[in-house]
Amino acid sequence: MALYAISDLHLALNGEKPMDIFGQHWSKHDEKIKENWIKIIKEEDTVLIAGDISWSMKMEEGLMDLEWIHKLPGRKIISKGNHDYWWTTISKLRNLYEDMDFIQNNYYTYENWAICGTRGWICKGATGFTAHDDKIYNRENIRLTLSLEQAVKDGYKDIIVMMHYPPKFNENQETLYTETFKKYGVKKVIYGHLHGAGLKNALNGVYDGIEYIMTSCDFLDFNPIKIL
User: Fold this and answer.
1) Fewest beta carbons less than 10 Å away: which of 21, 66, 87, 222?
2) What PANTHER family is this protein classified in (predicted)?
């Protein structure tokens, strides 16, 4: 039994969003993910998927991509990304598959670890940050706090947070998210969202006692990374 992570699958199995427009390494990337996943993930393993699951705009369209994930080995814990417009009511999502859990103001467990999280947003101080961004930024921190409060209330001390957006962009930056991590004793943070030139800003390593792990699938060469 092991815990893995990967994010930004950007599935479009209906063929409407070819990913190779972002570079040849994205050509048939779903086949690469599937091949690598099957090689390393066993049915008893758990995989964290931190957002940008599907390009679909509606749930009915996204079901093809969710079904593809469902058929892969292992249990999956999924959080929302900025492109997941198909994401519908949480109760409907939780009733889809026994092997797929969806985080929204709640948490799940892996052995003695609590898996918490939220989508996140661009952080204050980013270029072009607006009052509208500030509203979403604060709202996402509230959702993160709700997730963490439940886990801590239930007695969990080993906590992993999964976010889509980077919770900070350099090792010295303090954000609402990093303050919340410290308040609740978070030990590991997995995140994605960054691609291409943006990957130069990816934080990987331990900062202020918290391990940050970048999981965008192109950063990982389309291989799930072992977390525990």
Assistant:
1) 21
2) PHOSPHOESTERASE (PTHR31302:SF22), TRANSMEMBRANE PROTEIN WITH METALLOPHOSPHOESTERASE DOMAIN-RELATED (PTHR31302)
The rounded distance, in Å, linking the Cα atoms of 126 and 179 is 17
Indicate the domain borders of the chain. 3-226
**Average confidence score pLDDT of the chain:** 93
The per-residue pLDDT for 21 is 59
Residue with tokens 């943006």, as numbered in its chain: 198
- Please, how many CA atoms are within 13 Å of residue 168, restricted to the half-sphere of its CB? 21
Three-state secondary structure call for residue 18: coil
Pairing type for strands 205-207 and 188-191 reads unpaired
Express each pLDDT in 74-124 by its tens digit: 999 999 999 999 998 888 898 899 999 999 999 999 999 999 999 999 999
CATH architecture type of domain 3-226 = 4-Layer Sandwich (3.60)
- Asked if 149 and 121 touch (Cβ cutoff 8 Å), the reply is no
Q: How many C-alpha atoms does 216 have within 13 Å on its Cβ side?
A: 20
Q: Which pLDDT band, with edges at 50, 70 and 90, does 42 fall under?
A: very high
For tokens 């090689």, the residue is 39
What are the contacts of 66-70 at 24+ separation with CB within 8 A?
A: 66/96, 66/97, 66/100, 68/11, 68/13, 68/30, 68/34, 69/9, 69/11, 69/100, 70/96, 70/97, 70/99, 70/100
